[in-house]
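Subject: design request, 300 residues
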């Protein structure tokens, strides 16, 4: 790893993990950091617990005493919790990490070298791999335009390939419009320019918004597929999304559109908002039935 990133002995990366009701995942994530990354890079790790009902905070406190634990009294969303720790970051880099990830040997050190080789990069992500060995294709993304968004909301997936940033190969290094919020290595100096996560997002969309803002400030977003991390995608929330999660998913779409895409045409804006909230109404109305079918399938 490039030694010029920080002074000898100084903390190089601060890791921020937000947890809610995911004790076994947080444990595995922290064990991977302890086993691999902390041997390669000097870390300070923060876990921000959003009032988990399963004793996650107590487990972290007792099993990982080296971790800075932040106990929040309520679950106010991912952005609010992440910002709680980000306000106290002083290391040159911060790694925003989901609890359903595991970092293998060499990955974090490699990403730091990528940052050193590209001083104009504000954010870098890596290839994400599922438990079954398949790729999490959302590790690199393009920002859809309003027409593509309407096509998606209408239930057509023709724009899906474009959304996954096909110009950069899965195992290549390249510039993209966004990386996945499950793993984002961020240059702290760039963070100071761009600002914290937008706390209007309770969950979903805050990573896309952040990447757009980094790019607007002149920082490149890099995807480095030459290294990987495990991402147990969807494991921190019920795979059969509750109405609350469905609501926040669509609300985040509307916030993102209003912040970055609206204003070209009133008619187009209206169509997008009708599409967003119409899709929410449809999915919310069928959520109980899909949840029932899912439970019967699991028990069969």
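Subject: RE: design request

Done. Sequence follows.
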């Amino acid at each position: 790893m490039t030694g010029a990133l920080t002074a000898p002995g100084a903390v190089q990366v601060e890791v921020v993990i937000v947890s809610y009701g995911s004790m076994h995942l947080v444990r595995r994530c922290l064990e991977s950091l302890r086993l691999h990354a902390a041997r390669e890079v000097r870390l300070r790790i923060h876990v921000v617990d959003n009032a988990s009902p399963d004793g996650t905070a107590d487990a972290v406190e007792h099993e990982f005493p080296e971790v800075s634990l932040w106990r929040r009294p309520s679950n106010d969303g991912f952005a609010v919790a992440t910002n709680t720790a980000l306000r106290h970051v002083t290391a040159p880099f911060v790694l925003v990490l989901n609890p359903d990830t595991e970092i293998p040997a060499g990955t974090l050190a490699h990403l730091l070298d990528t940052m050193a080789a590209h001083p104009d990069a504000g954010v870098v992500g890596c290839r994400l791999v599922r438990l079954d060995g398949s790729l999490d294709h959302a590790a690199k993304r393009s920002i859809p335009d309003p027409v593509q968004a309407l096509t998606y909301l209408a239930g057509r997936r023709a724009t899906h390939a474009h959304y996954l940033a096909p110009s950069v190969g899965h195992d290549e290094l390249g510039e993209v419009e966004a990386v996945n919020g499950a793993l984002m290595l961020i240059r702290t100096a760039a963070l100071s320019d761009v600002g914290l996560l937008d706390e209007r997002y309770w969950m979903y969309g805050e990573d896309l918004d952040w990447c757009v803002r980094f790019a607007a400030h002149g920082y490149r977003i890099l995807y480095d597929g030459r290294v990987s991390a495990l991402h147990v995608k969807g494991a921190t929330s019920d795979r059969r999304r509750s109405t609350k999660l469905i609501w926040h998913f669509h609300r985040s779409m509307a916030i993102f559109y209003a912040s970055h895409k609206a204003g070209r045409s009133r008619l187009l804006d209206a169509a997008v908002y009708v599409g967003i909230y119409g899709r929410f109404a449809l999915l919310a109305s069928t959520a109980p039935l899909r949840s029932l079918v899912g439970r019967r399938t699991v028990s069969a």
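The first helix runs from residue 23 to 40.
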